[in-house]
Amino acid sequence: MFISRRKLFKRVGTVAVVGSLVESSGGKSLVAGVLAPNPGVSLIRLDRNENPYGPSEKVIAVLREMSTVSNRYPRAEYGSLIAKIAALHGVNPERVALGCGSSEILRSAVSVFLGPGKKLVQALPTFPAPGTFAHRVGAEVSDVHINKTFAHDLGAMLAQAGDSAGVVYICNPHNPTGSLTPRKDIENFVNELSPKTIVLIDEAYHHFVSPNKSYESFLDRPIDNPRVMVVRTFSKVYGLAGARVGYVVAAPDIIRRLSAELLEFGVSVVSAIAAMAAIDDSEYVRVAVERNADDRQEFMNQANVRMLRALDSHTNFVLMNPMRPPGQVIGHLKKHNISVAPIIPAMDKYIRISLGTPADMRKFWNAWDLMGTTGQMAM
Fold first, then answer.
1. Whole domain around residue 332: which residue ranges?
2. Where residue 14 falls among pLDDT bands split at 50, 70, 90?
């Protein structure tokens, strides 16, 4: 812990300059779109649940080397990545499909299994992409508010699904709460659903789950049910959000139907090779998981010192009640070149904060402390 409660209250009200050095060449940003509202200062991005440390050194080395083939379309690399993912999860390659990020997988699943007269059942709140895509294809969207433990209310979702639901979407670990829905509860839920309903399980944050008896991935221990699709991404623990690589593991028939909707070779040759290198670097994954757990615990320590209410998280972000109007908090942080997620309508007393590097988080808390004590801005 880098600040005690005593030191915190001594510092409240002092003026500090919060920012970071800009990556520059002649004073201009090298990366378009990263400049903050204050000119010359780069934005601290704590808004999109990215891996702030980036990919492993081995992956970076591969990216440097393979940049020379960026003029080529994928050839054998596509099949090689599918084969490597299949081997990772102990399934046949015909049960794996690639997407330009997991969002493309979700869009394709909605396009294949939903449409006018069909229904998507999902939690409220949740990752918004499936609901957005469902509205676009004219499907009904049934939002079921999460329960008191901030997990999926599977009983209520089952009631909403009935016989008409084309797809049920379960994000576990859950975005934006960081919570877990117990594995046994999901299994029972799947068994009680109509046999016509597809179950789309999004495990984007799987790697970040601390040891927990109630959680187990549906890829690490699959169930024998051809309606279950499991989606993963290279955007989180592997640090390849910008490379846009996602994948789905499902029954061969589902994979064939999805493949008709997915972009042909939607994953670039460079991204495919980087993803293969990321899978091979298991030591980096281990280190990244441990580092995230440490960063998450440090965030909770700092929140507790300030008497803030943060939800237990099994991801690389934290949902927190700032004990003051979230809009004011978001605006204040923005003035100090720190971006957090926008207000979540279904949980409008909370803000979601992605975990950054220790340096990022020190700047975050320094900026936070400039708002004064909780009592001074209490709701």
1. 5-42+292-377
2. very low
Give residue 39's pLDDT.
55
Residues 249 and 267 in one domain: yes
* 265 burial type by CB count under 10 A (0-12 exposed, 13-18 middle, 19+ buried): middle
CB 106 within 8 A of CB 249: no
Amino acid found at 137: V
The label of the residue with tokens 């081995």 reads: 58
Question: 307-355, pLDDT tens digit by residue?
Answer: 999 999 999 999 999 999 999 999 999 999 999 999 999 999 999 999 9
- The dihedral over CA atoms of 9, 11, 12, 16, expressed in degrees to the nearest 10, equals -160
Q: How much is the pTM?
A: 0.88
Compute CA 261 distance to the chain's CA centroid, rounded to the nearest angstrom: 23
Nearest of 209, 128, 115 to residue 165 by alpha carbon: 115
Give the three-class secondary structure for 347: helix
Say how many C-beta atoms besides its own lie within 10 A of residue 68's C-beta: 9
Q: What string of DSSP letters covers 145-191? A: E--TTSS--HHHHHHHHTTTEEEEEEESS-TTT-----HHHHHHHHH
Pull the structure tokens for residue 13.
Answer: 């009200």
One DSSP character per residue, 232-255 reads: EESSSTT--GGG--EEEE--HHHH
Q: Are 199 and 311 in the same domain?
A: no
| Domain harbouring 220, CATH code | 3.40.640.10
Torsion of CA 297, 298, 301, 303, to 10 degrees: -100
> Alpha-carbon distance 131 to 123, whole Å?
10
Beta-carbon-side half-sphere exposure of residue 33 (alpha carbons within 13 Å): 1
Clarify whether residues 236 and 352 are in a common domain: no
> Of 282, 317, 339, which marks where a domain is finished?
282
Domain termination residue (choose one: 282, 316, 350): 282
Nearest to residue 266, comparing CAs of 251, 244, 236, 238?
244
Q: Is the dihedral of CA 240, 243, 248, 252 positive or negative?
A: negative
Per-residue pLDDT for 10 more than 70? no
Tell me the C-alpha distance between 84 and 299, whole Å.
35
